[in-house]
Write a structure and sequence with these properties.
Structural class: alpha/beta
Shape: elongated
CATH architecture of the largest domain: Up-down Bundle
Number of domains: 2
CATH superfamily of the largest domain: ABC transporter type 1, transmembrane domain
Number of helices: 20
Distance between the termini: 45 Å
Number of strands: 10
Largest sheet: 6 strands, mixed
């Protein structure tokens, strides 16, 4: 089996602004070109008022004025015509920039999710993670466009307007700029309330997504116990919560927009009155009045749009915090830069290993010392809560000892790249997981070079070939999410075939035959016995038939090892295994 020795570095934890800087890296020219073309695109908005003012002030119908009129009209037409290619080139550069950021963020989230420990995933809601990877990044993708079209356009407009007004009437700038602090005051009055409102709205959306995912997952149990109405009531409560918070946020945004619009309208009329008074005093021309007010109307509209951009900016900030929440999650499995298992023999030595879950003050595994030579099989037995599954997690590397060491082939596992180790591991769990692809794709998962003959051989060994051939499209039959088209026993046998096809050096069997009927169990147990040969095998099972052929059985109680001998030796004394054998014969 091939082992990849190349591995990407884990996603680094970065401060917010460092992450933004990193996302911009390599895309600066896209931004510069987008700004250049949006400037050309917006040129008619800010230059046409100047041209209009000059046309109004041309005066008498003489040859010189007619020539100037023709020039002004031609310039205006060119300004309008260039808007089309400028808009296309602007959008082309902008979407490559924004969609590129979204692409990178989604890739980074996927990399981070792959690097985060399984305990992080067990604590986290699938729905919440979906929301962060899809909705939050989609909001972030719109931010650069809004920033350019609202923020940059406002800066561009106020610059051009200020220059034109300063040339004609410098005193008018005082009133012109008075609108900015007034709008800042309006924004500050609403900012905190809108920030809190958008935060509550985002969390309620994540909660609803979580509840929806749980509802779909629990559907068989819900139907089996007739709890549809209760589940609906719970879901409806979450949906109403999203509705109420969404309505509150939308109303707050509407009030903010209305207040902003009224303020800008009042300022506009005051500015128009002042301009006309200056015209009456012959300080400026009629064309200047038209130009000033065209600038002010356009600028006030831009400023109003900029104010309405505030709620969107707050949403984007919340989404950025949400994404960074994943990217900065500390619960990483750190592999990069560590040693690689080029090949594996499977010799395990556990030296005084102890482990406790973060939420528990009781050790799940304590002071466990054990040697499992390469190619031997070890069954792990004990009552519920004795630490069997935790020990498997430690052996796979999903959990790491708090005390002691696990030595694999003479190398401490904490110093090794566990991804290279797991490429030599085959795992069959109590609840096998499948994706919605075909039987072939599920069995050969992670290895595109597997032939149909190898797949068929694995199916035969797992006693699954007969029912697979009976499926509508054989190996090409799509299973549906989580193998919904299969029975429990069929799913378990396919999971065993998936483990067999990897030709693993280490085999992990966690209740691998629990879903099989007695007839299938006999055939699958023979396959397991064959596949265990010359492989280091760890198995957890309640069925005596599954573990009776193990080389040794380790008996755990309260996280500690109380016995570890061959099945034959254990039957000579009173212990958990011998009692289980006795009870199975009753």
């Amino acid at each position: 089996m091939k082992t990849s020795t190349s591995a990407k570095n884990e996603v680094k934890n970065l401060p917010k602004w460092a992450l933004i800087k990193e996302l911009f890296a390599g895309r600066q020219w896209r931004v510069i070109k987008a700004l250049f073309f949006v400037t050309l695109k917006a040129a008619p908005v800010w230059l046409i008022p100047i041209i209009t003012a000059r046309i109004i002030d041309l005066g008498h119908d003489d040859i010189a004025n007619l020539k100037q009129l023709a020039i002004y009209v031609a310039i205006a037409i060119l300004l309008y015509l260039q808007n089309i290619p400028s808009a296309i080139w602007y959008m082309s550069n902008l979407v490559h920039f924004t969609r590129g950021i979204g692409q990178d963020l989604r890739i980074r989230i996927c990399e981070q999710l792959q690097a985060l420990s399984l305990y992080y995933h067990r604590r986290s809601s699938v729905g919440s993670l979906h929301s962060k990877a899809i909705r939050d990044i989609e909001i972030l993708e719109t931010l650069p466009r809004l920033a350019i079209e609202q923020g940059y356009s406002f800066i561009l407009g106020i610059t051009i307007s200020s220059i034109a007004i300063f040339i004609r009437k410098p005193e008018a700038l005082l009133f012109f700029f008075l609108t900015v602090p007034i709008c800042a005051v309006v924004s500050s009055l609403f900012k905190r309330r809108m920030s809190n409102s958008v935060n509550e709205y985002r969390k309620s959306l994540e909660g609803m997504s979580t509840h929806l995912n749980e509802m779909v997952t629990m559907m068989p149990i819900t139907r089996a116990h007739g709890l549809e109405q209760k589940q609906l009531q719970s879901m409806e409560s979450g949906i109403r919560g999203v509705f109420q918070r969404g309505v509150h946020f939308d109303k707050l945004t509407a009030v903010f927009a209305a207040v902003s619009w009224v303020v800008m309208g009042v300022m506009q009329m005051l500015f128009l009155g002042g301009s006309m008074y200056a015209c009456f005093q012959r300080q400026i021309t009629v064309g200047d009045v038209v130009m000033f007010n065209a600038f002010f109307i356009t600028l006030s509209n831009t400023l109003a749009n900029l104010l309405t951009f505030v709620p969107q900016l707050l949403q984007s900030r919340e989404s950025l915090e949400s994404v960074i929440e994943i990217l900065n999650a500390p619960d990483l499995e750190k592999n990069s830069g560590k040693g690689i298992y080029q090949e594996l023999h499977g010799d395990f030595k556990l030296d005084n290993v102890s482990f406790s879950f973060p939420e528990s003050d009781r050790a799940a595994i304590k002071n466990l010392t054990l040697h499992i030579p390469a190619g031997t099989s070890l069954a792990i037995a004990g009552p519920s809560g004795s630490g069997k599954s935790t020990l498997l997690s430690l052996l796979i590397g999903f959990a790491h000892p708090e005390e002691g060491n696990i030595i694999l082939d003479g190398k401490d596992m904490k110093n090794m790249d566990l991804r290279s180790y797991r490429q030599h591991v085959g795992i069959v769990t109590q609840d096998p997981v499948f994706f919605s692809g075909s039987v072939r794709e599920n069995i050969s998962y992670g290895n595109d070079e597997v032939s149909d003959a190898q797949v068929a051989q694995a199916l035969e060994q797992a006693h699954a070939n007969e029912f697979v051939q009976a499926l509508p499209e054989g190996l090409d039959t799509r299973l549906g999410i989580n193998g919904i088209r299969l029975s429990g026993g069929q799913m378990q046998r396919l999971a065993i075939a998936r483990a067999i096809i990897r030709d693993p050096k280490v085999l992990i069997l966690d209740e691998a035959t629990s879903a099989l009927d007695s007839i299938s169990e006999v055939h699958v147990q023979k396959a397991i016995d064959n596949v265990m040969k010359n492989r280091t095998t760890f198995m957890v099972a309640h069925r005596i038939s599954t573990i009776k052929n193990a080389d040794r059985i380790a008996i755990l109680e309260n996280g500690g090892l109380v016995n570890c001998e061959s099945p034959k030796e254990l039957l000579k004394t009173d212990n958990f295994y011998s009692q289980s054998v006795k009870n199975s014969k009753l």
